[in-house]
Specification:
The protein is an alpha/beta fold. The protein has 15 helices and 19 strands. The chain starts with 11 loop residues before the first strand and ends with a helix.
């Protein structure tokens, strides 16, 4: 009898619960995962049992809860290895400072930590702790170490905590965790073997040694797109303008400042790329003659001559052996018309468009997109940029695979006969 493929059965989530007060939220996480069609096996640490009973988790998951590495009945058949192989994804919620530290240092003194070392499934942590514990250099060092090994973090969120303080350390809400974990799993392998180059963030164009022209882009969307492409199995190169967010682990990050530098980096790394996603907000203009000295405030009015910056996406579009091109259109009005015009003029395979301004798009945690391609479009509703990026990568991967399957030319202008 042949084994059942992961695609033809529900996603299997091994949900670890460590000993923090946020464990009271985790039964709701189990319920939401089950509602979304997942099979959930709960594993609790001894500390977790001090906050929530195993009976609660058994009731909502429909499966006996595992708590003990020394369970003679289960371990007679090497139960911890069986569980480690059973899981498609491992999620620890809440992940306490203690559990994060033990996992970072490879300890395996209880069932949950042993499973984490014995599994090949992707591991996601949802940290929950006091704000000072989260910001402690020891915790931050452990987190960076785990991220460098490919372990993903969700949160922590910022808000009021059980101790009465306010700050970073709250466990993300169960709905967000469930949606993120399952959408990550649905992407697994969608871009396996592909090289994807992503641009993100703003560029800065010098006026004088202390001033520059730029825009409001935070880089959050581009960084989320890079992380989603990585989760889909791609080899990702992220060319980033100046931002204040950490780079996605598992990607190659190239830091630049100006549009010219971004173009040079893209030209270097787009060679051999399968997909190029231009999510950066590249400055359109620069000072025609930047000053070598700080411009003094000596006049009531000042005029600065501007010159066009290089068109990064347009240059790639005109190159030989161009990759599959995905652009972004951030518009304040006539979003669809302007997006389609940009897609046509730059000869893009796809474009993702959104309205910006007045609290929309730039420097926000949430966004919405409409994705267009030749003869089709798809609406992606308002959600977190991380979730939106995963949806976008799913659409891009599907369209890329469809074009490859029918052997469509890379240049859409050739296809439509222009």
């Amino acid at each position: 009898m042949s084994a059942v493929s992961p695609e033809s059965r529900p996603q299997r989530v091994l949900l670890g619960v460590s000993g923090g007060i946020a464990a009271y939220k985790t039964p709701d996480l189990v319920r939401r995962l089950v509602e979304r069609g997942a099979e959930v096996q709960v594993v609790m640490t001894p500390g977790a049992l001090e906050f929530v009973t195993a009976h609660t988790f058994q009731a909502v998951s429909g499966r006996p809860v595992r708590t003990d590495l020394w369970d003679s009945a289960a371990e007679a058949a090497m139960g911890h290895i069986e569980l480690a192989r059973w899981a498609d994804a491992v999620v620890i919620a809440p992940a306490t400072a203690d559990f994060i530290a033990r996992l970072a240092h490879g300890l395996a003194d209880d069932l949950l930590s042993t499973l984490c070392l014995a599994t090949s499934a992707p591991i996601t942590l949802a940290p929950a702790m006091n704000r000072l514990m989260w910001s402690n250099p020891a915790t931050q060092s452990n987190v960076r170490l785990l991220e460098s090994r490919g372990i993903a973090l969700l949160g922590p969120a910022v808000g009021e905590q059980a101790c009465g303080e306010t700050g970073a350390g709250r466990m993300m809400e169960p709905r967000e965790i469930a949606d993120t974990v399952l959408s990550r799993q649905s992407l697994a392998g969608a871009m396996s073997g592909l090289k994807v180059v992503v641009t993100a963030g703003p560029t800065r164009e010098r006026i004088d040694p202390v001033r520059f022209l730029s825009n409001r882009s935070s880089g959050k969307m581009g960084y989320a797109v890079a992380a989603a492409a990585r989760d889909a199995g791609a080899k990702v190169v992220l060319v980033s303008g100046p931002v204040n967010i950490p780079p996605p682990p598992g990607t190659t990050v190239v830091n630049v400042e100006t549009a010219e530098q971004m173009l040079d980096a893209v030209r270097s790394h787009v060679i051999g790329a399968d997909i190029f996603i231009a999510a950066a907000a590249v400055s359109d203009y620069k000072a025609a003659q930047p000053s070598s000295k700080k411009i003094k405030k000596t006049q009531d009015a000042l005029s600065i001559a501007l010159a066009r910056t290089p068109d990064v996406l347009g240059t790639v579009a005109r190159s030989d052996n161009r990759p599959f091109l995905v652009g972004f259109a951030a518009e304040t009005e006539d979003v669809e018309r302007n997006a389609l015009a940009k897609m046509e003029s730059k000869r893009l395979e796809m474009i993702a468009a959104n309205r910006v301004g007045d609290g929309l798009g730039f420097d926000q945690d949430d966004n919405a997109l409409t994705v267009y391609w030749q003869g089709g479009k798809q609406e992606l509703a308002l959600t977190s940029k991380a979730d939106l990026a995963r949806q976008l990568i799913g659409v891009v991967a599907k369209r890329y695979a469809e074009r490859a399957a029918v052997g469509e030319p890379r240049d859409p202008v050739t296809r439509v006969g222009n």
